[in-house]
Known about the structure:
The protein is α+β, with helices and mostly antiparallel strands and 72 residues long. Helices cover 19% and strands 43% of the residues. The chain has a five-stranded antiparallel sheet, with helices on one face. The protein is elongated. The N and C termini lie close together (11 Å). The mean pLDDT is 90.
Amino acid sequence: MDGDDRSGTTRWTRADGTVVVSLRETADTRWAVTLDRLEQAPEGSGYERETVPTREDALAVAARQRAAHDGE
């Protein structure tokens, strides 16, 4: 998955395009990490959202989600 940063949101998209992990700062200065898995993904559709207090925590959650859904 490659990461890109658009308007305060960092996104990683799996090579096959069926999974996106993103993180962003919320209005209350916490960090939200989301996993969006499309119906076309081999493992089926899914959505998860986790809110954590710091960007470092958000990066750790994103890394865990990316590793769990790397498609290999």
